[in-house]
Amino acid sequence: MSMFIKNFDQLATSDGRKVVLEMIEAGLVAIQPAQVINDQLLITNNQLEICGQRFNLEGYERVFLLGFGKGSAEISSLIEGKLGDKINKGWVIDVVVEKKIETTMKYFEGTHPFPSEQNVKFTEMVVSELEGKVTERDLVIVVICGGGSAMLTFPNCSVEELIEMNKNLLKSGKTITEMNIERKKVDRVKGGGLAKILVPATVV
Fold first, then answer.
1. Residues paired with residue 83 on neighbouring β-strands, in sequence order
2. How far apart are CA 132 and CA 85, in angstroms?
3. 184 touches 190 (CB < 8 A)
4. pLDDT for the residue numbered 178
5. pLDDT score, position 104
6. Residue 200: cis peptide before it, omega within 30 degrees of 0
7. 8 A C-beta contact, residue 106 and residue 39
8. Are the beta carbons of 189 and 123 closer than 8 angstroms?
9. CB atoms within 10 A of CB 143
């Protein structure tokens, strides 16, 4: 029975169409967050493997999780479910946060497609928690999803100016690459800014 293609039976009017629909369905199943995390994030004792990269958690004093973008709450929650109390602290911003369970993880609601005061405040909080405070003995897991550039933002202009700039960029006809070149000019955490803030921690 199809999980995602709701009108599978109506569309499968021939053997060939049924095969194609089954392939599409298999692809949709394979990219579900729970499936991806189950396949790509493995932990055995203190050995963490993410997409083939291995990390010995005994070599780290602290593990942090930072998530931003649409879907990051679900993915971060799945990672938290696997790592449990191995995560010392975590911060996630998403447009929808269904569960607000009191754990070491903190989940916040943000806005998209335009940045907002709550997005900026979230970013300022994360930067204040991590900048100059992480060491080479820390591991930071970063979950980035679509819309993350609007939700993780630390502009050197007002929020109103940032929103206006983004509105103009969206109407400009520029490609996403061209828009991001402009965005990083006015934002501390873009264009490698976040990576600089997380130095010298290990980041995955």
1. none
2. 24
3. yes
4. 94
5. 85
6. yes
7. no
8. yes
9. 23
Looking at residue 192, its pLDDT comes to 94
Q: Is the peptide bond before 33 cis (omega within 30 degrees of 0)?
A: no
The token pair that represents 150 in the structure block: 């609007």
Cβ burial 164-196 (10 Å sphere, 16+ → b, else e): ebbeebeeeeeeeeebbeebeeebbbbeeebee
Rounded to whole angstroms, how far apart are CA atoms 103 and 94?
17
Nearest to 143 by CA among 200, 194, 197: 194
Report which residue type is found at 202.
Answer: T
Are β-strands 41-44 and 47-50 bridged in parallel, bridged antiparallel, or unpaired? Answer: antiparallel
For the chain, residues with pLDDT lower than 50 are: none
pLDDT digits (tens, 9 = 90+) for 27-78: 999 999 999 999 999 999 899 999 999 999 999 999 999 999 999 999 999 9
Give the CA count within 13 Å in the CB-facing half-sphere of 38: 7
Residues in the chain: 204
User: Up-side HSE of residue 111: CA atoms within 13 Å toward CB?
Assistant: 10
pLDDT the model gives residue 89: 96
Q: How many Cα atoms within 13 Å fall on the side-chain side of residue 86?
A: 21
What pLDDT is attached to residue 151?
96
Predicted model pTM: 0.88
